[in-house]
Design a protein that fits this description.
Layout lengths: L1 H19 L1 E7 L2 E6 L4 E12 L3 E12 L11 E7 L3 E12 L7 E11 L5 E4 L2 E7 L1
Parallel strand pairs: 1-8, 2-9
Antiparallel strand pairs: 1-3, 3-6, 4-5, 4-7, 7-9
Length: about 140
Amino acid sequence: MKKILIVSLLTFALGMPLNLNAASVTFEPQKVELRVAPGQTGRTYITAHGYAKRAYSLNFLLGSKLKKGNIPRGWLTAAYLWLDSKSEGTSSCTMNLVVSVPPGTEPGIYSGLLEPDDMRSSESIISTGVNVTIKVE
């Protein structure tokens, strides 16, 4: 029992500094749904909000890292985002999310989770990403 308590405390103590030095990035909306016909393009806006406990600079791509989904590579236009803060707190940036569905695509539902792809950031990035659903009709 004592051994479990010590291991738990060490794990908690070692994990704390890592979380304090990470920037949180959230998106509005967190879920996006677009209806796009084959050969057409759909657009929407997403706002990224960055937050950290000290001044930070976050440079990342959104759209280059897709998880848990079946959206084909190349359908989403990657957007370069730069969130910058002179002190602790929040900064925001609005971007276009562009979806291009190639001609001849089979109708169906394509979805996935977009996550920020860390480029040159002064902080590591913690984010839940954006859930994207594309209905091809």
